[in-house]
Structure formats: structure tokens, C-alpha cells
């Protein structure tokens, strides 16, 4: 099918884009890569009155390293990050699973984060890495942490007049270990469940464990792993996997059952942690 | 701040898009909602670009835009202003021999009905322009972004691997990047 008619604007500055978003409010949508929005419009699931195409906005296509990590502008393509490597192991591990090479050539990292599909890889990667989104509106700038970003399937904390201009993902240190695993029915499909883990180890002691799951709730879900203690061996991976399977609240949908998702959570969390934990690491009350 | 309404192209107004297609300047008159795939077919008569799912799944409409193989159904024609586009018609003129990738598809029975073929050719063209010395796993990963309901893909994989060896191209780097873990 073809999209319903819409007005189109292709501003060249952030201020022009923000002015249009402020005026049209919820009737306007931001067009970056378009690899999720345009299919929804073709299926008439979305009918924006105005598309604000940010692809020619100056300054949004840049990739820089800041004190907080890797900063990717709103129009940096998934393929470009995959090709060059990001320095954030979990992002690099998850990107080959995002869409297909043809969609990654246009699709942007920030766009996928804003689209907020709860089964998509990148929102869960942002949560597991502890990244943040840089947001602008006519009223000013603000930073939205990953844990505060998602409000439901397809819904974020961004107001209709706000534009996400960049994402920042913490870079790995020498002590960072990460893994992404997912299960889906076909290549290119969104996974039924995806799991990202990031572990930081200092002198044999694990000082951070983050485990996040896609496809389980209506937002990316962080497995509650606070207060764990013990050696970083397969038993700990098993323990966290059991916590994840017990605490998750998946639902049945047209793609699979809640029971199936729970089994996938248990298995994928365990396997992902087995990849990054070593028997010689200790976990004193990891948060 | 007040929005600049001169930036907005109303849905009802036709838009003239100037771009380069297969090395020649071209102009298309489109609606804001017209996809590049539809514009190439309906405005320029380049019907080699096939349109099937119109939602980015099947890959049949793949063309090269500014050196990237993209879904032409998921790019608005108005977004292609000033772009360099290559379609399957740009691989070899009717009076020229087939492009080595096209010849490989013929030799390896990589098509039957041919509907998916133009998209696969453009994806393969982009892949082989960038790289040489591909392994089968990588080819299968890339091909998985295209739906073919005739061949079972074996012929397509064989053809691309053969074209990788047969196509004489100076620019593609010889060293393959390490295989990614992925689907």
C-alpha cells in the first residue's frame, strides 16, 4: 500500500526543524532513516500530517567521542557504525541483528531508539550499556537516561516538540565484557526475545552487572540483579537466569506465548552471562 | 521561534526532483508521498526496479543511492533530490554484454521468475564493489535480506561467490573484514 498524503519539510538547521515540530505538535513526525516509520505509513498504521526530514540538518550526521562515551548524531546510519565499529562491544554485537543490510544502510541508531519497539535490539542495548539520549526543543536541551526513556510500546519520554539529536553510549574499558544473544524465527525479524549483558570487572571483582531483555515487556526490561554475591562462575549465570525467568512478565501475542518467552529469557540470559563471567571473578553485591 | 512555512511542501502540490540516474541527469514530478521506487518506474520508465511488499521486507526494489544499496520503497522520491542513483538498468546497456554479476546469475541458475533478481543484483553489486574474497556465510547473511520464492537461494549464493572471483574490479579491497556473529 501507499502512505496517506502528508506535507513534507526538509529543514537544514535544528532550529528550523524544532520550529516545525513546535507548530504541528503530534501531527508531525521526524523522518530520519525511515526504515520503521515508512513501512508503518505504507500500512496506514501511522498517518502523520507532516514529515520533518532531518537528513539534511547540519551537524546531525557526526560521530564524536566525548567524556561520556561515543556520541552518534541523529542521522548516523546503523551500517556506518557497524562498518567502523563503535568501541562499545554490546552495540557492535547487536547491530548485525538489526534489520537487514538493506535497511541498515538507511536506518539510524537514534531513530531506532526513538521508535521504541520493545522487541527491537537497540533500545535494550541502550538500557544495558547505560547510555542516554540528547534531546532538544525550542525550550532548551535535556538529557534522557535510558532507564527513563521508555514509557510503553512505541512511546518515549520525548514530547511532540522535542527532537532527539544524538545518543551517547559509554565506551568499553579494558575490563568491560559484553554479549548480545537473541532468538527469532527468521533473519531480519524482530526477535521473540533478545538479551544484552554488560559486565565490568576490576581486579577480579565484578563491579557492575547489567542484564536487559527485549521482547519481554512493553519497554526494554532490566533484570533486577542487585545484591548478588559470589564467584563469577556458571552458577552465578544460572542464578541470574532464574531470577530473570521468575521476575519477567511476558504476555501472549500473535508471535508466541508468554511461556515460550520465559523459557527463552532463562536460556538466553544464562548463555549470555556464561560468555562474559569467568570463574576467577568475584561478585560482591553487584548492582 | 516561528516556523518557516516556506520549508513545507504541501501534500497536494507536485514536487520536481532533480537527480542523477545511471549517470544521466533526470527530473521527476512526484507527490511528497511517492516512493523512489514508484518514481523510477512511473516517471522515468525504469521498470527494472520491482515493487512487491512496499514495506522494506522483500528487497526487490533495491537500488544504489549515493553508493549504498537501499530499499527504494523506503526512501521518498523527494529525499533523492541531488542523489546519484543506480538501477539495474545501469549495470549493462541493452547492446552491451551482461555485467559479470548478471552473467553469473545466468550461469548458476540464480533466477527463475526473475522478480527478486534486480534487487539481488544491486545488493550483490554494492557488496562486491566494496569487498572481495567473500565467504559463503557472509553472502548468505546479505542475501537473507531478499525474498526469493523460486530458487531456494543456492544458485544465488553460487552466483555471487562466482562473480566475486570473475568480476575484474580494481578498487575492491582484497582483505575481508572478520565475519560478524549474527543471523
Question: Care to give the gist of this entry?
Answer:
The complex is a heterodimer of chains A (287) and B (183). Chain A is of the alpha+beta class. Chain A contains 10 helices and 16 strands.
Note the main attributes of this structure.
heterodimer, A: 287 residues, alpha+beta, Uridine Diphospho-n-acetylenolpyruvylglucosamine Reductase, domain 2, Uridine Diphospho-n-acetylenolpyruvylglucosamine Reductase, domain 3, Enolase-like, domain 1, 5-stranded antiparallel beta sheet, globular, B: 183 residues, Ubiquitin-like (UB roll), DNA polymerase, domain 1, 5-stranded mixed beta sheet, 6 strands, 27% helix
Tell me what you see in this structure:
- The complex is a heterodimer of chains A (287) and B (183).
- Chain A contains ten helices and 16 strands.
- By secondary structure, chain A is α+β, with helices and mostly antiparallel strands.
- Chain A has three domains: 7-53, 2-Layer Sandwich (Uridine Diphospho-n-acetylenolpyruvylglucosamine Reductase, domain 2), CATH 3.30.43; 63-169, Uridine Diphospho-n-acetylenolpyruvylglucosamine Reductase, domain 3, CATH 3.30.465.10; 176-277, CO dehydrogenase flavoprotein, C-terminal domain (Enolase-like, domain 1, 2-Layer Sandwich).
- In chain A, the strands form five sheets. Chain A has a five-stranded antiparallel beta sheet with strand order 4-5-10-6-7. A four-stranded antiparallel beta sheet of chain A has the order 11-12-13-14, with helices on both faces.
- In chain A, strand 8 (150-152) and strand 9 form a beta hairpin.
- Chain A is globular, with a radius of gyration of 19 Å.
- By secondary structure, chain B is α+β, with helices and mostly antiparallel strands.
- Chain B has two domains: 15-90, Beta-grasp domain (Ubiquitin-like (UB roll), Roll), CATH 3.10.20.30; 100-166, DNA polymerase, domain 1, CATH 1.10.150.
- In chain B, a hairpin with a 2-residue loop joins strand 2 and strand 3 (24-30).
- In chain B, helix 4 (136-143) packs across helix 5 (154-166).
- Chain B is elongated and about 55 Å long.
- Chain B starts with 7 loop residues before the first strand and ends in a 17-residue tail after the last helix.
- The relative contact order of chain B is 0.14.
- The A-B interface holds A 1-11, 15-16, 18-20, 22-23, 31, 34-35, 38-39, 42-43, 50-51, 53, 55, 77, 79, 82, 93, 96-97, 99-103, 105-106, 138, 184, 187-188 and B 1-4, 7-12, 15, 31-33, 35, 38, 54-57, 59, 62, 68-71, 73-76, 78-79, 81, 123, 127, 141-142, 144-146, 180-183.
- Strand 1 of chain A pairs antiparallel with strand 1 (8-9) of chain B.
- Chain B: InterPro entries: 2Fe-2S-bd (IPR002888), 2Fe-2S-bd_dom_sf (IPR036884), 2Fe-2S_ferredoxin-like_sf (IPR036010), 2Fe-2S_ferredoxin-type (IPR001041), 2Fe2S_fd_BS (IPR006058), Beta-grasp_dom_sf (IPR012675), Diverse_Oxidoreductases (IPR051452).
- Chain B: Residues 15-91 form the 2Fe-2S ferredoxin-type domain.
- Chain B: Keywords: 2Fe-2S, Iron, Iron-sulfur, Metal-binding, Oxidoreductase.
